[in-house]
């Protein structure tokens, strides 16, 4: 996989936003998979700035969701649908019709997961999927020991992941126990995978995912199997990489036009 080490989160956001903008210029109706949480916010802010400045027309882009909590009421501010609409769809000037995601309020969650997986394929597949990484190496909500061939499905969150996400709620008790998530097999079908990780707290997970063996214990290691996977990390998140100097030199030697 391609590893790019940047000075900080802002630089990472700018780099990835430009890659997404370049894709939309080539393919205006590109299907972009987005992630939630605080890590990708610099990407969305940089994209919105390009739209406001007239540097990018995102009006035909399509947005799809990586995962969703199960059981939060419709319109809950911390449902991932609400977050994506607030942080991505609205700032880019898109309508809700450009957005697709799993229904976390569906009475039959298993059927809703299967329907979403089918809908992604029917839409032509994801052109670029953004990913974050958990401190335990999870991507989406594919917790450690998830099948590397898994499809969109319901998962039970570990206590660690619930604790990590409790900052978005008033208390840990409010964090749902279950989620719908694209499976690792589903994620790997995207044409380009871009993972952003920042902060020292992600350093071990990044090192295991990039330099360790491909193993279900570290779901993000599955990116090693993808033909076009890019991992963008700041210096803190890169601090445990044994090949950090090699990655810096490799990216520095790339022609400017190649981007990521």
Automatic annotation (TrEMBL):
Active site: 67, 136, 138, 143
Ranges in coiled-coil conformation: none
Positions of the record's site feature: Part of the allosteric site: 146, 153, 155-156
Keywords, alphabetical: Allosteric enzyme, Carbohydrate metabolism, Hydrolase
This protein's record includes keyword Hydrolase: yes
Any one Gene Ontology BP term: carbohydrate metabolic process
PANTHER family assigned: GLUCOSAMINE-6-PHOSPHATE ISOMERASE (PTHR11280:SF5)
Name the UniProt record assigns to this protein: Glucosamine-6-phosphate deaminase
Source organism per UniProt: Streptomyces gilvosporeus
Gene: nagB
